[in-house]
C-alpha cells in the first residue's frame, strides 16, 4: 500500500517500482510482479545496474513459470 501511494505521488519512483515487484512476487501475483519488474527496468538509471539485472532475470523466470502453468 505504501509503495502504491509513493507511485501516485511520484510515478517514476524506481525504488517503489522495484519494491512493488518484489512484493507481488512474494505474494505469487506473478503477472503484476512482471509488470512492475519491467516498469522498474525501463525507469531505473544506470546506477541501479545490479538491481536491473536481477529484475530482468526474475521477470524472465516468472514469465517461464506462467507459460508452463497455462
Radius of gyration: 12 Å
Q: What fraction of the residues are assigned to beta strands by DSSP?
A: under 5%
Distance between the termini: 29 Å
Runs in which pLDDT lies below 50 for 5 or more consecutive residues are none
Indicate the mean pLDDT. 92
* Biggest pleated-sheet summary: none
Query: How many beta-strand runs?
Result: 0
Structure annotation, total helices:
4
Order of helices and strands: HHHH
Q: Helix coverage percent of residues?
A: over 70%
Principal-axes geometry comes out as: globular
Structural class by secondary-structure content: mainly alpha
Concise synopsis of the structure shown:
This protein is mostly helical.
Amino acid at each position: 500500500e505504501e509503495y502504491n501511494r509513493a507511485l501516485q505521488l511520484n510515478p517514476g519512483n524506481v525504488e517503489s517500482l522495484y519494491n512493488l515487484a518484489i512484493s507481488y512476487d512474494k505474494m505469487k501475483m506473478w503477472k503484476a510482479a512482471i509488470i512492475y519488474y519491467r516498469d522498474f527496468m525501463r525507469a531505473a538509471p544506470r546506477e541501479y545496474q545490479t538491481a536491473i539485472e536481477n529484475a530482468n532475470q526474475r521477470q524472465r523466470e516468472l514469465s517461464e513459470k506462467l507459460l508452463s502453468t497455462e
